[in-house]
Amino acid sequence: MRKRSVTLRGHATSVSLEDEYWAELKRMAAESGMSLAALIDQIDAGRPSANLSSALRLAVLVDLKLRAIAGGDRSS
Fold this sequence. Notes:
By secondary structure, this protein is of the alpha+beta class. The protein has helices at residues 19-32, 36-46, 52-71; strands spanning 2-8, 11-17. The protein has a single domain (2-71), classed as protein bp1543 (Ribbon-helix-helix fold). It has a two-stranded antiparallel sheet with strand order 1-2. Helix 1 (19-32) packs across helix 2 and helix 1 (19-32) crosses helix 3 (52-71). 9% of the residues are buried.
């Protein structure tokens, strides 16, 4: 678990996530052509009432699911 400080709309906050989630968030940001901070801000802006750490984990899960679907069924 790694805690990082991020600034969202001018306010500093801390986010604790496992290293694997940080790695996926960095990949997602790079693939989208944005900074990690910009990606986190985007996820934060679109989240319902869940806490930020949970919203980030769910964003990674959704991204990985979409990547798996886009990869298609390779068994045929």
